[in-house]
Amino acid sequence: MSKFLKIAAALVVVSSPAFAAGLDLGRAATAEEIAAWDIDVRPDGQGLPEGSGDVWAGEEVFTERCAVCHGDFGEAVGRWPALAGGHGSLTRERPVKTIGSYWPYLSTVWDYVHRAMPFGNAQSLTDDEVYAITAYLLYLNDLVDEDFTLSHENFAGITLPNEGNFFPDDRAEMELAAFSGEACMTDCKDSVEITMRAAVLDVTPEETKARQLKEAVQAAKDGKAPEAEAPVQVAQAETATAELDPAMLEEGEAVFKKCMACHQVGDTAKNRAGPVLNGVVGSPAGGVDGFRYSNALQSAAEDGLVWTDEDLSAFLEKPRSFLKGTKMSFGGLKSEEDRAAVIAYLKSFE
Asked: Which of 38, 46, 92, 248 is 20 to 30 A from 110, comparing alpha carbons?
């Protein structure tokens, strides 16, 4: 037997509890220690402790302990992970993998929050707080209503939307045999051809440069030069902006910074935790394509709610008083001047 194998065998023997005890090396773990380490939760609910928590309690804990990284609505801050949204994005080049769009099991949410969160202070949450945070995350993903309470009793009945798109790991049966044969070492392939470069696949950070290179490669294949991008038509927007008070617009832009974590405006605006607000003033509520509104706002839209200056101001003053059940947890703009300024600013993005 080689020296390496002898050492390895010795280590295996020494690592056994009986042998280690004889050498005064450690001891067998107690039942209490094993129970403290055995905290994993399985998809069928096995391992869950007794407890419960509702959406509203979860919002309070999430805002205090989690929002600094994940945002008030799970939209993410900076490069931290988004926990909500991303519906229908899995087939795109840049999918947004969240609890509502990608994750297969709710047990993964509970287990990870319980085991590893909050960042820097893991396992400091009570079981009821973990239930409450999990309930709030379900609510942010439009999977439960605002009055929902999650507990160990109803946990196994929650099914996430993407569960059916996962399948068991069958690599041991399907792939192991294919890769267990004798490896080919000579004359295995006539030649190797580079079919695509990473920059062309848009996997590099320089998105604009990569897109231009991709267009150039495709144009070369087609035998024609890439078309120049059409100039953006801004005359109408400039005319509309000119009719507004510049000082009011400047003030409104400053106020809108309170909204930018969730909303965007302008030509490149995209839906985030909240919808794009271009043209919102004077438009029917709930009209932004591709955004999943709360049940409360959808109901108000069906009842004919239009975002007039008056209704928008009332909503911005006290969102939850104006529209009970709204997902917007923003505390509101108490100053009438601030509300008027931000509405004027929004009018400049028709």
From this structure: 92
Q: What's the CATH number for 235-347?
A: 1.10.760.10
Each residue's pLDDT tens digit in the chain (350 positions)? 555 555 655 555 545 555 555 678 888 999 999 988 888 999 989 999 999 999 999 999 999 999 989 998 998 988 899 999 998 899 998 999 999 999 999 999 999 999 999 988 999 999 999 999 999 999 999 999 999 999 999 999 999 999 999 988 888 888 888 888 888 888 887 777 777 766 555 555 555 655 666 677 677 666 665 555 555 444 444 444 446 788 888 888 888 888 887 888 988 888 877 889 999 999 999 889 888 888 888 888 899 999 999 999 999 998 888 888 887 767 788 889 989 998 999 988 87
Q: Considering the domain 52-165, what is its CATH architecture? A: Orthogonal Bundle (1.10)
The yes-or-no answer to whether 52-165 and 235-347 have a common fold is yes
Listed by start position, the domains of the chain span 3-35, 52-165, 195-226, 235-347
Q: For the chain, give the secondary structure using H, E and C.
A: CCHHHHHHHHHHHHHCHHHHHHCCCCCCCCHHHHHHHCCCCCCCCCCCCCCEEEHHHHHHHHHHHCHHHHCCCCCCCCCCCCCCCCCCCCCCCCCCCCCCCCCCCHHHHHHHHHHHCCCCCCCCCCHHHHHHHHHHHHHHCCCCCCCCEEECCCHHHCCCCCHHHCCCCCHHHHCCCCCCCCCCCCCCCCCCCCCCCCCCCCCCCCHHHHHHHHHHHHHHHHCCCCCCCCCCCCHHHHHHHHCCCHHHHHHHHHHHCCCCCCCCCCCCCCCCCCCCCCCCCCCECCCCCCCCCCHHHHHHHHCCCECCHHHHHHHHHCHHHHCCCCCCCCCCCCCHHHHHHHHHHHHCCC
Query: What pTM does this model have?
Result: 0.50
Rg (CA), the chain: 28
Nearest to 263, CA basis, from 275, 254, 253: 275
